[in-house]
Amino acid sequence: MRIGELARRAGTTTRTLRYYESRGLLPARRAENGYRSYDEGDLRLLQQIRTLQDFGFDLEETRPFVDCLRAGHPAGDACPASLAVYRRKLDELDALIAQLASVRAEVGAQLARAELEASADLPGGPPPRCELGGPT
Amino acid sequence: MRIGELARRAGTTTRTLRYYESRGLLPARRAENGYRSYDEGDLRLLQQIRTLQDFGFDLEETRPFVDCLRAGHPAGDACPASLAVYRRKLDELDALIAQLASVRAEVGAQLARAELEASADLPGGPPPRCELGGPT
DNA sequence: GTATTCCTTGACGCCGACGTCAACGCAAGG
DNA sequence: CCTTGCGTTGACGTCGGCGTCAAGGAATAC
């Protein structure tokens, strides 16, 4: 199949496929007229790449999976190098999530404090407090 | 004070300060010789910007805070526009964290599955299973 | 034949927040 | 005077993953 059909079947663009080829990730055979020629195996390689990309893997990180498939393994993650990428990505995700959670907490606290101070400065004095028990 | 001193005191670079000025975020007065001249107020504005940048706010998002300080408020988040940015950022963070958590779960599951299949293909047959009860 | 669509390569554009270099001016110390 | 170390503007480089356009050749539909 030619580049347009592969792109359509994988839900991507021809530009993307040419880019992958320029990176050496998905080289293509050539027909006599110079057109790139792909087969079903290439579609599977491409699907593997896209799946990982959707997960936030960058291109270089998908390379071990592609190599693994090309080496004849039924799954891209059947090779140690792929598993290593998985583990490294998990660590990255954990670190990133932790950092974002920390930022979220800080921003949330800042918002709460700022809202409190804003309401204290409003006309009519401070709004009703929430106090427990005791007759008024 | 001049640009180098301000940069040092804020823990950033002169290039960054010129960049902020080019974006209209932190304009500077000029001395007679053309040198940029800053005061303590500028340092506070800059600190506000850096704090938010460290939280992952992009430059445009810091603008309401800077404007708020420049308007004479004691805190950059004492203005409604700043609070709106806080809230938007919280929503963004929540969405991003949720997405990353989802990805983390999927990647973790893939890793577990791949490790299981790998161990099943190792020499010596599959490793000991973890089964409950029953005589062997 | 011709119109349309596909393919080719090459090259520039984009985004954000600066880094880095060039080429120069100005100031202060010895 | 000379050097060193500030400052100035301008402009190009960085990173990733492509988008977009240009100028042409090839295949297909009618």
Automatic annotation (TrEMBL), chains A, B:
Domain of life assignment: Bacteria
Pfam family, one: MerR_1
InterPro entries noted in UniProt: DNA-bd_dom_put_sf, MerR-type_HTH_dom, MerR_fam
GO molecular function: DNA binding; DNA-binding transcription factor activity
Keyword Transferase in record: no
Keyword entries, A-Z: DNA-binding, Transcription, Transcription regulation
UniProt key word Transcription regulation: yes
Protein name, as recorded: MerR family transcriptional regulator
Species for this entry: Streptomyces globisporus
